[in-house]
Every structure is written in structure tokens, then in C-alpha cells.
């Protein structure tokens, strides 16, 4: 299996065009706030949505438009999440779709919509309507970067990615753009990811592949434990790579899932790394555990702990906090013989053996923890599963971004 | 029912003495680190312990010594939590008890022990042994403040309290000292609370009253979502008030529970308010909800949300984050017709009605939120229960205390 991550984005697969412009939803004219993604050919499509009971209007409209598992375009705005906006909000989201549909002669139900930004404020569609011509004029097979920029909020870098691989000898491509847990006053973090591919695959298997890989990528990151009302991951496949249709869980399907998993985990890590105020990526792998489910709860408990996150920010080899976080995870496990290691590009150090302190070089620990990507390895010695989750450190800037709305 | 909170502490009830000294566990000689609490008469006693699977050695010893529901003394050190210290740690904790027992001619099993501070480092009992004479010499009915100071870690103020009330005409007293979620490098937050009373009550009802009131006080606060390995609440009753023994759930029992509840909630709020780096107490009341259990999950989700905590730090009327936190609480409730209010000494303001924004004065909201005690009121309109939980804001100083170990 040969899976190559390449520079690129949503327009890397055949037949996809995208654009990103400033429409006037954000006040700053230098910031793009409206993106459009289209496929020359109608796509099979699937989506995964936030588990928050409060759901944004665009999410409800997208879910509805995906009932037939078909889509040809996605319109996304940043600067306003169109959430807690009632009937008016649903009309605004539906209008965004119909504006695209009318301009491009698509069916409104084949256009999906996503929004991120302030909630509880009505979204004015006028600037979107007024910008439709230029949004469509800008559509380009080189539009990846522009569209990825237009969906950013407090993200510090745009997130795009593509992967090339082969399915039974045919070269195929996956592309994606995402935005991370960035927040706009007065609002909440949102995670969005849009994936494109020219792979020929049935709607049912596209849906299955998406759900299975989302569960072990985006669903294994945490920035601050808050789950947004607008989180959404959508995948579109137009089949233009002309590979033999994948409609059973054959070898090609497994390769596709592997590539999609790589894509989603890479994006998820980019999102975790770019968490609000974050200076470091934290990766926690719980290994030799009896089940994936238990491993995930343990790992998530570690990467979500404010005390662990603060310790990593301070480059402090505080394994006691890791053990403490494992101890309050809601699972029934024996912690009496676990080992804990810290690891980075500078090396690996064992800090705890059989749940007891070991003597270690404070100097080496410091050197390891001063790196920007920190791994916390927990060996449970009680099974054969291994689970990794990702998070980021807790910093002054997180508080600044989310606490001081004047900043 | 006449329940009066008075100045005082663990020695306010009849027959209790306490002391607090610097023994040398903390490096700073100006900081007390060893406390002793004794009763002239053997007490009925009960305890509640951390739910963390990793439990400190003192906790295991205390639990063991409380099997007969009797105790006469509690020795507590700060500066070292004596956790993850194995067999040696258990011996150290047991030794602390026997040192007190030998000096005072008590049985070792009648002495309880608690520790708070760094974990994973062996506790040296030598300084404790060397200080035993002066610790006992200092025992005094005016020792409340000294002992409360000796159990502090990063707490910014000592926490003591007493309550006077009557049981069938007899004046009785409850006293207590607690420490909050303060952390010592390289370690974790710990909550400790020691309650004394001269009330005459059976061990079974003392235990029941303690558990019932702990569940709606200490168990409803959160500073950072991390549950320590050493949390402990202990109550001692020596019966010296000579009220008629409470051995059924009669009127006197109900009054006692009400007083104990008031004591525990007041202390819990003090702990939340003094959360690491905190500048504000946050109180979230979820009212008109179908059950206590659901209300508690909703309220805890709000006070635990990093985004809500940051918003309150910034005095930002960000009800969207409150709604968001309610939305991801793990309960099945209808959020479509809820109202949200912010309240403080400056007034009350409705910010959300039926889950939609209402127009409100940003100026008044700011004035309300600039106060030090902020209430978030959530009206669920779907039942008759009401639950309150307490937390604190998330500030630069939380990150400083927990992230920068040089500070």
C-alpha cells in the first residue's frame, strides 16, 4: 500500500473547483469569509455531524440535502455560525444553497452549507447574494488555498491536504480542507472538514468509510472539551478517477479507508496543534489495553486534563497528573502496574514504572518536553489494543482569546 | 429552624482542640505544614473519599481506621501527598497515626491521617516525629486558625467555619476546616475537609448525613475537572452537647442535616471561589428540571466548560457558550424552550428566551458580570427540581500556577 501525502487541497482530485473571497460577513476586509466548493460531476456524498443537542441551521439543512446521498457543491461562510437563529436561520441557510444552485444550474438539494462564527445573531444573506458572481468567477482548480483561508476563524494557519494512492493500478486522489477550534467573540469553537475525492465508490461504503475514520481521527482530538453546535465533516466523491466502482468491502475499499484514515488523522492533528492559544501538540497513546473503547476513554482523559495540559505548556514532566487523569477516567481498569513515558524528537524517557516513580534525568525530561510535539505513552500491560488521541497545551493565550473579548 | 453561621472552626464545638505548626515538610519556614485535631472524648466518625482509582496512602489508612466508625484525632500534613509511594507510603501514614496515638495514649486505629501536596515522592516522617511534642503542646481550643493554615497548599485564604443551632432546645455546634483545589508542583489539586461536632448522633446516621450532604456540596463544585487522588471529607462527633441521641431520622436529624448541608455548601463555595487563579465564583442553577440527576449533569457541564469559565473571566455575557455546554451534557433533554439569565449583586438580566437571543442592554450585562460572584440561571421549564453547582473562572493565573513550575 503506497499512500503519499502531497501538497494540495480540496481541488487536488479530478473535477473539483473551489474559491474563497471576502463577502463582508467579517468586518476586516482583508479576511476571506465565503468559500465555494463544486464538482464538475454530481457526487456521492456523506456527512457526520456534531453530537451537541443544539445544532446550527446550516447543519440541519445539509443533513436534509444529504438524504439522497448526492451533492455537487458546498458553500461555507465564516464570521457567523447561523445558530440559535430559528426559522429565519433555516431560511438563510436554504437561501445560501439556492443562490449557488441558481447560479450554476444545480438542484438546491445538491448544495450543502456550513457556517462558523458567532451564534445567536441572524446571518444577513445580502452580502452573500451580492458576492455570488465573484465567488463563482473565482472558482478554480487552484482554489484550494483560497477556500481553506475563507473558512478560518481564529485558526493561525489554513489547513489543506491531499493524498495520492492507487486502487488496482488506477491513480486516485483525496483532498481536504478543515478549520480548527478557533473561536470568534462572542462564540464557540467549531470544527469543520470538507473532503473531496475522485474515487468511484458507492454511497453506502462512502458513508461507512467516513464514519469509521472520523471516529478514530476528529473524534479523538480535544482542544478544550467543548463540543460545538456546528461541527461537520462532509465527503464528496465524483468517481472521475474511473476506478472500478467500490461497492463491496474488497481490497480497494480497504486501501481507500486506509488513505482516508491517514488524511483525517493528519488533519485532526493539525487542528489539535492549532487549538486556541496552543503552543504544543500533545499525543497520548494508551497501549496494551483490553479494548479500544477503554483505551479511548483513558487517552481522552489524559489529553483533556487541564492539569496535564498546563504541565506540558510548562515543559514539566509531571507524570503524577497523567496517572491522576487515568485514575478518574470512567473505566474499570487496574492501574497498579502501568508504565508512563514522555517522548519527543529529543528522545524517550520512562517516568513511572508499575505506577511508581522511577529515577530519571530531570535534564533530559526537560529537553524532551521543550519540543513542540509531545507524546505521552501509557503502557497498560493488560491487552493488545492501542489507542491514540490528540490535544494541545493550555496556555495564557487560550484564556486571552476566550476571556478577553477586547483582544 | 435557626441556623447561624459564626466565626470559628474545628474547635468551636465542645471538647475539640487543634494545632498547626511548621514541621519542615514545606521548605518555607514561614509556612505551616502539620496540623493536629483531637477530641477530649472518643468520637463517632465517618468519611467520604475520592472516586479516583489512584488513592493516596493516607486515604487507605484512614479508611481502614474508620472501619469501627470511631476516631479521636486527625493528623494532616501539607507539602507531600504521600501518594504513589507504595508500601513505604502506607508505613509512613500508619506511623503518623501511631506517633499521635503514643503521645496522647490513644489507640492507633482511632487516629486518622490525611496528606496533600506533591505525589510520587516518599514522605519523610522524621520531621513529623521531631515535631510531635510541639504539635501536641500547641493543641488549644483556639487552634482553629493555626490548623486551617497548616493544611493549605496554593489556597489564598484559610477556610474555617462554624455553625450554631438548636436540637430540641439544646445548643449544638458544627465546626470545620477545609483546603481547596490548590496545587503544589509537581502535583495535583486536592480537596480536604474536616468537620467536628458536639452533637450526639449514631454512627450510621452520622455517615448518612455526611454522604447525603457531601453529594450536594463538595461533589457539586469543579475547579478544573481534575479529581485528585487524595480528596477526603471526615466528620467527628463527640456528643458533648448532650442532646438526646439521634438514632432515627427524626426532627432533630433533619435539623442536623440542614445545618451540615449549610456548612458543607458554604465551605464548597469557599473552595470554588479560591480555585487556582480564580477571580470569580460561578454559580449555575438549573431549575424546573425533571430530575436532580439530569439537573446536576447540566449544571456541571456549564460550570466545567472552559469557554464559559473564560467568558466569565472576561465579563462577557456569552450565553451561546452556556447553551452549547448544556447541549453537550450527556443527558436527553429538550433545550428548545429554555431561558438563560445572568445575575449578580448588580441585578438580573435575561439573555436568552426559548433558546433564542433576546435584546438586552450590553451595558447592564457588563455591570452584572464585572462582579465577583456570578450566577447563571437556566430555566428548563420541564419539571420541578432545581440543582446548583459551583465553579470558578479560568484565568491567566490558573495557567501560571499549573504551567510554569518556576513561578
UniProtKB/TrEMBL annotation, chains A, B:
Site (Cleavage): 189-190
InterPro entries given in the database record: Arg_biosynth_ArgJ (IPR002813), ArgJ-like_dom_sf (IPR016117), ArgJ_beta_C (IPR042195)
UniProt site (Involved in the stabilization of negative charge on the oxyanion by the formation of the oxyanion hole): 116-117
Entry's Gene Ontology molecular function annotations: L-glutamate N-acetyltransferase activity; L-glutamate N-acetyltransferase activity, acting on acetyl-L-ornithine as donor
Pfam family, one: ArgJ
Function, as annotated: Catalyzes two activities which are involved in the cyclic version of arginine biosynthesis: the synthesis of N-acetylglutamate from glutamate and acetyl-CoA as the acetyl donor, and of ornithine by transacetylation between N(2)-acetylornithine and glutamate.
Subunit relationships: Heterotetramer of two alpha and two beta chains.
Family: Belongs to the ArgJ family.
Name under which the protein is recorded: Arginine biosynthesis bifunctional protein ArgJ
Amino acid at each position: 500500500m503506497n499512500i503519499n501525502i502531497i501538497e494540495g487541497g480540496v481541488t487536488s482530485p479530478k473535477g473539483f473547483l473551489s474559491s474563497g473571497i471576502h463577502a463582508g460577513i467579517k468586518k476586516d476586509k482583508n479576511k476571506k469569509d465565503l468559500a465555494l466548493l463544486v464538482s464538475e460531476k454530481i457526487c456521492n456524498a456523506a456527512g457526520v455531524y456534531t453530537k451537541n443537542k443544539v445544532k446550527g441551521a446550516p447543519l440541519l439543512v445539509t443533513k436534509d440535502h444529504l438524504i439522497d446521498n448526492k451533492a455537487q457543491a458546498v458553500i461555507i461562510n465564516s464570521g457567523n455560525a447561523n445558530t440559535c437563529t430559528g426559522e429565519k436561520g433555516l431560511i438563510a441557510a436554504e437561501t445560501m444553497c439556492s443562490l449557488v444552485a441558481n447560479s450554476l444550474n444545480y438542484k438546491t438539494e445538491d448544495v450543502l452549507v456550513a457556517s462558523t462564527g458567532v451564534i445567536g445573531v441572524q446571518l444577513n444573506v445580502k452580502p452573500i447574494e451580492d458576492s455570488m458572481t465573484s465567488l463563482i468567477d473565482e472558482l478554480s482548480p487552484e482554489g484550494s488555498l483560497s477556500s481553506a483561508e475563507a473558512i478560518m476563524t481564529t485558526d493561525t494557519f489554513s489547513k489543506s491536504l491531499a493524498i495520492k494512492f492507487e486502487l488496482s493500478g488506477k491513480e486516485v486522489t483525496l483532498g481536504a480542507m478543515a478549520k480548527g477550534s478557533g473561536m470568534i467573540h462572542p462564540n464557540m469553537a467549531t470544527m469543520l472538514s470538507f473532503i473531496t475525492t475522485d474515487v468511484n465508490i458507492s454511497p453506502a461504503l462512502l458513508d461507512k468509510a467516513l464514519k469509521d475514520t472520523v471516529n478514530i481521527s476528529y473524534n479523538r482530538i480535544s482542544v478544550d472539551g467543548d463540543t460545538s453546535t456546528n461541527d461537520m465533516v462532509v465527503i464528496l466523491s465524483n468517481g472521475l478517477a474511473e476506478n472500478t466502482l467500490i461497492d463491496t468491502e474488497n481490497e480497494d475499499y480497504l486501501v481507500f479507508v486506509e488513505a482516508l484514515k491517514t488524511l483525517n488523522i493528519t488533519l485532526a492533528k493539525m487542528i489539535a496543534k492549532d487549538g486556541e492559544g496552543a503552543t504544543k501538540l500533545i499525543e497520548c497513546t494508551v497501549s496494551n489495553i483490553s479494548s479500544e473503547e477503554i483505551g479511548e476513554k483513558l487517552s481522552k482523559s489524559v489529553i483533556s486534563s487541564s492539569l496535564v495540559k498546563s504541565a506540558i505548556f510548562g515543559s514539566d514532566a509531571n507524570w503524577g497528573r497523567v496517572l491522576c487523569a487515568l485514575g478518574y477516567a470512567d473505566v474499570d481498569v487496574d492501574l497498579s502496574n502501568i508504565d508512563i513515558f514522555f517522548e519527543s524528537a529529543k528522545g524517550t524517557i520512562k517516568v513511572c514504572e508499575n505506577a511508581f516513580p522511577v529515577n530519571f534525568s530531570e535534564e533530559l525530561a526537560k529537553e524532551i518536553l521543550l519540543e513542540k510535539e509531545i507524546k505521552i505513552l501509557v503502557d497498560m500491560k493488560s491487552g493488545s489494543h492501542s489507542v491514540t488521541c490528540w490535544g494541545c497545551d493550555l496556555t495564557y493565550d487560550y484564556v486571552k482569546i476566550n476571556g478577553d473579548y477586547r483582544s
